[in-house]
Amino acid sequence: MDGTAAAGELTAAGEDLEGGGIRFTIASAAHDAGIRRLLRDNPMRGQISVSMERESSYFGVARIEGPAHRTIVALDEGRVICAGGVSVRERFINGRPMAVGYLGGLRLDRSCRGRASVIRRGYELLRTLHEQGGPPIYFTSIVADNLPARRLLERGLPGMPTYRFLGEFVTLIIRAGSSRALFNSSEPAQRELRDAGLRLAHGSDENLPAIVELLNRDQAKYQFAPMWSIESLRSPACCPGLKAEDFRMAFAPDGTASACAAIWDQRSVKQTVIRDYSPALRRLRPLLNVGAAILGRPRLPAPGRALAQAFASHVVADPHSPQLVHRLIQVLCETAHPRGIDYLVVGFDSRDARLALLRKAFRPREYVSRLYAVHWQDGAELASGLDGRLLAPEVALL
Questions:
Q1: Separation of alpha carbons 74 and 35, rounded Å
Q2: What's the pLDDT tens digit per position in 87-122?
Q3: The domain containing residue 87 runs over which residues?
Q4: Through-space distance between the first and last CA atoms of the chain, rounded to whole angstroms
Q5: In Å, what is the CA distance from 30 to each residue of 83, 101, 343?
Q6: Same domain for 241 and 351?
Q7: pLDDT at residue 391 above 50?
Q8: CA distances from 176 to 61, 80, 159, 191, 200 (A)
Q9: Under a CB-based contact definition with an 8 Å cutoff, are residues 308 and 341 in contact?
Q10: Rounded CA gap, 25 and 13, in Å?
């Protein structure tokens, strides 16, 4: 993005920032290995500690979050100790598309735990980027039980943008290979769709225009939902691992596309890696895996192994007909299992009526995030004017 920034674009800041012996700068390809090391060595802790990795190239996958992307890094004697991404793409706000920023992938090296000043100084460079032509509003997602991050970002510290809480977002992790997901899955699903007057079909290059029209018509009903184009769906940079054939579509009797969903397998560029287990779970893992083998369920991988998961993305189905989204995901589960995919990941606003049926049907694992509108003073009016639509940022883009 050379030259003058168009509205909503992010240009490189004119100079780096120094503070406390740490240099803050816009990351380049020279920092790729350092950022990947940061992601790999600083997992999210819990009974199962996982790292969200981007092998074999951090920047090779950055455009998934948005075509306009920058990563701010903090360097201590050349070593990346903190990184956070900011990207911009067209999303729907109050029913109309506009440039919206996303703040994601914030990681602080374990050697810097408790040094909130490192993160605060990074926001100074973010503000410089914003003032050079950034969008009026951004959003971000914070895991609900990440209390240290919430305390820091919600306090309204000087120099920090405002974090306005919007609502909770529930991510479901559905076992694609479980007997519950596959039991009577595809045939009854297709039969119920036919009984409802719908015809199920695979996506193709020929019906990409219908997919795009369906997606954008539906996404306009939600806040922070992405706007799609034929070009973006076909782009290996914006949608790596996604092909038209990965879509399943439901057509009305008149030939109109009325519902769709896709399996988006990003494992070639983004990985969720098991880094460790709690002592108790580490001892029980062999026994649990024996039980999993008997029941035909996914095993707990050894530390250092990536989860075999993909996203159930681009889900369009009438929120007032929860059985439709249930059946679409059942069809995706049957498709995913032969592809070596153990889990499908999908996300919904916590207020979405479809969640109750999906929880009952699949008994998934789930985790809750808090979504925030993030803004400086020039975005305050827009942020305060957000209406009450459900939130749908598309979990595969986060």
A1: 10
A2: 999 999 999 999 999 999 999 999 987 777 888 889
A3: 17-168+371-397
A4: 22
A5: 14, 24, 34
A6: yes
A7: yes
A8: 25, 37, 45, 20, 20
A9: yes
A10: 8
